[in-house]
Every structure is written in structure tokens, then in C-alpha cells.
Design goal:
single chain, alpha+beta, D-Maltodextrin-Binding Protein, domain 2, Dipeptide-binding Protein, domain 3, 3 domains, eight-stranded mixed sheet, four-stranded mixed sheet, 15 helices, about 25% helix
Length: about 525
């Protein structure tokens, strides 16, 4: 159903659009937003996906947080002292923070949280954040509101790893943290409290009246689960949600709406096509390069993003201080791609498809269901590779099913189009260090000993300019190896109703950096 037919359907069915009937049937003092999938978990030390963190960030606080300028600020910490030449980080906690059940947060909760991350029995991808030279960091309680993190060696990214939400020891200390009901019904310290989670429908968050920054101005926050990006836009136009993330093709519709504000801003994210390097099809680096240079990325990105983003060639983005300006990368060259494939033994048959040892060059690419930009990119890539005699079968999966395929030890995929959100520090350990496979974020099984050594060196170096040179070499090697086809880094495009107030300024940190300050003044026409 196209947009025009959909709007006609709404009119015939009696559903009121904002453009015709003024204030929608939404709670007066609530903000209603959408999310593309249900969270996998609401436990901050177990979560590894953006959908989970989109909710977790309203419920939990970390020791530090990022402000709207991407600067580190204390959150649960009153202050942090760096002692003994950078080997001890002393966290002085606030004394006015309470969990949602009324129990005061203390040093015991901080020690418990980080020791659980270090516990080998905990299913977390965050353990490497607390390991230096294969030695765990020690978390030491000094008094009820003071904690020391004692490092076995210099660890330059450490401060940025203090943003993990703090768990309540009094609830979880005698439970299996991997299977606890807490993971679906959490108790945090954040500005909002989970009231109800209707799977595949809605998440209801109520106000934390004891929030240490002051009672939030909203009475509640309602998050609707709407997997398809087109459906999210329709829900926005129908007055069912107050904010929506847009695809570039949707911008023209919203620009015509006087009751909406449209903002666009760069994000510290990138999208890629990743190869399962343990699969025999992709073991040969020259074959991966051939696939990469078969695709005109500039044309692809222009078609998909329509100016709201740019082609990317490196495993980072221009917003990061480590971005390697001027580094060479494989450029679009279909003739050279044919040569590389021929030399690798992949010869075209009479059917137009390449074969080697009677094996056709055919593979699947997994994409999140409802992610229209990635689905569109998949179709374009499919067309480019078909010209080279390579067949891709595109498979769209619901988010949790996709994650299961990618993160299981079996690594049940051949290729995937996914994206990464980049952290405060460019430390690439989690994604590219060999030992982060198969139980970390190194989903594709990348393994390069020189990169491993450089990543560790970068972690042991304080001087930012020296680290930048180290990471430039890391990026150079990764680009040469081509474990991913780096596709694009996008701009975020968001529309919100004019009655939504108190949003943070548009930027890489998003519009909801301070959710406690947001409020609505619904306006009748």
C-alpha cells in the first residue's frame, strides 16, 4: 500500500490525521515515541543491542554520562579522582541517589555491578572493558560512597567504560543474573520506572519522583514497538506517536506539516556488510576485495541516503578524533574485480554464475526486518554482484532472531548488513581484537596478530596524538584485509511535534540526552 492509498484508508476508516483534527488521542502529560523492535534485555550489563539500550538509558544511570556536546560528565559520581599516575580511579558517589524501590545506592552496588561483569559466568560482552594485559581490574570499596578502580597498567579508554548502568545488589545478589526476572522487570536509579512491558506492542515508563536530578516533567513515557520504518511514519502522521526517525525519502512529507519540527544531525555510527571470515567463500582476501570493488558505493549511498550521509571507507567515522584522513581504500573497479575473481579460481559458467570446484558463488545476506535503508542497499548490492557472476539471497529477519544468528557461537550466517554505534573512545578492541570472537562483538571472526598488538598498544598509550597514529595503522590494515565492506555513515533525521519541549540540541548524542527535562504542551488547532 503506497502512502496516498494508506492516507485514503485512514480517512475512510474514520481515523483522524493531525492535519485535520487537532490534538490526537494521546495522554496529556506523556511523550509517545517508537522503537523498531522489542529490547532483548533490560539489564545494562547483559545488553548488546541498540533497542535494549534505547530503553535501558531511561531506567538506569552510570557513574558517568555523555552530555549533548559529547563530553564526559559525572552522573552517579559526584567526582572522579585519578591517582597514582593513572592506575587508580577513585569514584566519589553522590549520596542522594535511590533505586526505584527506595533503597539508597551505595558503593556496594557499584562493586557488585562491575564484579558481575568480570564474573566468567555472566553472559556479557563488556568483560574486555575491565581487562588490562589479561589481568582484571580490581574494584575496591573504600567506604559506603567511595570506590577505587585499581588498574594493573595504563588503560587509556578506562574512563569511558564507566557509563554502564549500576545494578541493585540487594535484589540480584542471590540470583542467576543471566536468567533473573529482573532482566525484564528492572529496578534502576534513572528518571523513569518500568511499569509495563507488552511484548511486540508497548513499553510503559512512569516517572521516578525521587530522581536525584529532580522529578521529570513528563508523567510517563510510552514506547510503541513498530518494527517497520514505513509504519512508524504512518503512525506519526496518524497522531499515534510524537516523534519519528525518518528515512530520507520521507523528509518531503514532513516539511509540508506546519505542526512538525524537522532536524538532521550527524551520528557516530556506520553501516557495513560483514563477511563471515570462517566461511570458505570469504577466506581469500582477494575475493573480499573483488566483492568490495564491484560496488559503486557513492552511487549506492546517493540512492539510499539521498544526501543524508556519506560513503564510508574505514572502520570509524569523521566525528571520531581517530578518523584517518587520506588513507587509501579499494575503489570501485568492476574490471579489476573480474580479474581478481578469475585469479582466485572463480570462473563464470554458461549460466552467468561463477563456480569453483563445482561450487557456485552464492550466499545469503541477513538484514534486520523493517530496516528499509539496509534492505534497499541489499537489493542494490545484489544487482552489482550479479553483474560479476555472484548471487546473493537477501533474508530479512526479526531483530531478536537476527541477533541470535549473529551472536551464537555457531555464527549461523554468511554475510550481514549491520551497523555499529561508536563509543566515546575509539578503542577498537571489542570489534576487532581476535579474542573477542566468538563471544564478543567480533562477529565475523577477524584475526590479525599485528592488529591485536596495535590495539593493545593503543590501550596502553595516553597521548592522543600517538594513539591516533596507532589507530591509523590499525585502520590501514583492516581496510587492506576487507573483513567488512564499509558502506556509509548516516545523518539522523528526526521529526517531532511542535508541542514537544525540552529536547537537547541536535547532535551525535541525540535529542533526549536529558529526558527529565522533556515535557509536552499539546496544542489544539
Amino acid at each position: 500500500m503506497n502512502r496516498r492509498n494508506f492516507l485514503a484508508f485512514l480517512a475512510l476508516s474514520g481515523t483522524a490525521l493531525l492535519s485535520g483534527c487537532g490534538i490526537p488521542n494521546l495522554p496529556k502529560d506523556s511523550l509517545v515515541i517508537s522503537l523498531g523492535s522489542d529490547p532483548v534485555t533490560l539489564n545494562p550489563i547483559l545488553a548488546s543491542d541498540s533497542a535494549s539500550f534505547s530503553v535501558i538509558d531511561f531506567i538506569f544511570n552510570g557513574i558517568i554520562r555523555l552530555d549533548e556536546n559529547q563530553k564526559i560528565q559525572p552522573d552517579l559520581a559526584e567526582s572522579i579522582d585519578i591517582l597514582h599516575s593513572g592506575l587508580v580511579y577513585r569514584v566519589n558517589l553522590r549520596k542522594d541517589v535511590y533505586f526505584h524501590d527506595g533503597v539508597r545506592l551505595t558503593a556496594d552496588d557499584v562493586v557488585f555491578t562491575y564484579e558481575k561483569i568480570l564474573d566468567p559466568k555472566t553472559n556479557t560482552v563488556r568483560r574486555s572493558d575491565l581487562i588490562v594485559d589479561n589481568v582484571p581490574i580490581k574494584i575496591v570499596k573504600i567506604d559506603d560512597f567511595t570506590v577505587d578502580f585499581v588498574l594493573p597498567g595504563i588503560f587509556s579508554p578506562f574512563m569511558t567504560n564507566l557509563g554502564t548502568g549500576i545494578l541493585p545488589k540487594h535484589i540480584l545478589q542471590n540470583q542467576d543474573i543471566n536468567t533473573s526476572d529482573f532482566n525484564r522487570f528492572p529496578i534502576g536509579t534513572g528518571p523513569f520506572i518500568l511499569k509495563k512491558w507488552q511484548v511486540a506492542d508497548k513499553i510503559f515508563l512512569g516517572t521516578n519522583e525521587r530522581y536525584y536530578q529532580g522529578k521529570p516533567l513528563l508523567e510517563s513515557l510510552i514506547i510503541k514497538i513498530i518494527p517497520d520504518s514505513n509504519s512508524q511514519v504512518f503512525a506519526y502522521e496518524a497522531g499515534e506517536i510524537d516523534m519519528v526517525d525518518l528515512r530520507p525519502k520521507d523528509v518531503a512529507w514532513i516539511k509540508e506539516d506546519p505542526k512538525s519540527t524537522l532536524v538532521s544531525y550527524p551520528t557516530k555510527t556506520y553501516t557495513y556488510l560483514g563477511f563471515n571470515l570462517k566461511n570458505q567463500l570469504f577466506e581469500d582476501r582477494s575475493v573480499r576485495e573483488a566483492i568490495t570493488i564491484s560496488i559503486d558505493k557513492n552511487a549506492l549511498v546517493k540512492a539510499v541516503l539521498m544526501g543524508y550521509g556519506e560513503a564510508l571507507n574505514y572502520p570509524t567515522c569523521p566525528l571520531d578524533w581517530s578518523y584517518p584522513e587520506g588513507l587509501p581504500y579499494p575503489e570501485y573497479n568492476p574490471e579489476r574485480a573480474d580479474e581478481l575473481l578469475d585469479m582466485a579460481g572463480w570462473k563464470k559458467g554458461s549460466d552467468g554464475l561463477r563456480h569453483k570446484n563445482n561450487l557456485p558463488f552464492r550466499f545469503t545476506c541477513l538484514i534486520r526486518q523493517g530496516s528499509k535503508d539496509r534492505e534497499m542497499a541489499g537489493v542494490i548490492i545484489q544487482q552489482y554482484l550479479e553483474q560479476r557472476g555472484i548471487k546473493i539471497d537477501l533474508v530479512s529477519l526479526e531483530w531478536s532472531s537476527l541477533l541470535q544468528r549473529l551472536t551464537s557461537e555457531k555464527k549461523d550466517f554468511e554475510t550481514t548488513i549491520m551497523g555499529w554505534g561508536l563509543g566515546m573512545d575509539p578503542d577498537p578492541y571489542g570489534i576487532w581484537y581476535s579474542k573477542e570472537y566468538p563471544n564478543g562483538f567480533n562477529l565475523v571472526g577477524y584475526d590479525n596478530p599485528e592488529v591485536d598488538k596495535l590495539i593493545i598498544l593503543g590501550r596502553q598509550t595516553i597521548d592522543q596524538e600517538v594513539r591516533k597514529k596507532i589507530y591509523r595503522k590499525v585502520y590501514e590494515i583492516i581496510v587492506c584485509d576487507q573483513p567488512y565492506i564499509f558502506l556509509w555513515y548516516p545523518k539522523s533525521i528526526v521529526a517531532y511535534r511542535n508541542w514537544v519541549r525540552g529536547l537537547s540540541k541536535p547532535g551525535p548524542s541525540g535529542l533526549m540526552v536529558y529526558p527529565e527535562r522533556i515535557y509536552v504542551e499539546r496544542i489544539e488547532s
